[in-house]
Design brief:
This protein is an all-alpha fold. It has a single domain, classed as Glutathione S-transferase Yfyf (Class Pi), Chain A, domain 2 (Up-down Bundle), CATH 1.20.1050.10. It contains six helices and no strands. It is globular, with a radius of gyration of 16 Å.
C-alpha cells in the first residue's frame, strides 16, 4: 500500500511537470510555442511513460484498479493538450488517447467537465488583466 501511495505521488508530480508547459501560455510565450513545447515533452518523455505504465497495470489506471490523483493529474494536462493542440494531439499514442477518452467518459468526470466549475481556456479579458498585473503590457 505504501508503494501505491509513492507511485500516486510520483505520477501526480510528473503530471505537474508536464502541465508546466502550458502555464506561460499567452503570458510569456505564444499558444503555438506552448503547444509545440508540450508536444515535444509528451513525445519525448510523458507519453512513452504513460503507455508503459498503463501496460504494466493492465487496469486502465496508472496505480491500482481505480481512479487516483495520478490519473486526475494526467487527465488535467491531457485536457489541455487536446484543448490547445486539437483533437489529433494524441493520435500518435493510441494507448494514451484511449486512456484519455475513457477518463473523460467516466460519468462523474463527464458531468464535472460540462459544469461551470471546470476552468476553461483563458479568455482575452483575463489575459489582459494578468499582463497588466505583471506589467507586461
Amino acid at each position: 500500500m505504501e508503494e501505491d501511495g509513492a507511485r500516486i505521488d510520483m505520477y501526480y508530480e510528473a503530471s505537474r511537470d508536464f502541465y508546466n508547459n502550458f502555464l506561460p501560455v499567452l503570458f510569456l510565450k505564444t499558444e503555438e510555442q506552448a503547444v509545440k513545447d508540450a508536444k515535444a515533452a509528451g513525445e519525448d518523455k510523458y507519453f512513452p511513460a504513460l503507455e508503459k505504465r498503463l501496460k504494466e497495470t493492465g487496469s486502465g489506471y496508472l496505480v491500482g484498479t481505480s481512479l487516483t490523483m495520478a490519473d486526475v493529474g494526467f487527465l488535467e494536462v491531457l485536457l489541455l493538450c487536446v484543448e490547445f493542440g486539437g483533437d489529433d494531439f494524441l493520435d500518435d499514442h493510441s494507448d494514451v488517447k484511449q486512456y484519455y477518452q475513457r477518463l473523460v467518459a467516466t460519468p462523474l468526470m463527464a458531468e464535472f467537465l460540462k459544469s461551470p466549475f471546470r476552468k476553461r481556456k483563458n479568455d482575452e479579458q483575463y489575459i489582459k488583466e494578468v499582463k497588466r498585473v505583471l506589467n507586461r503590457e
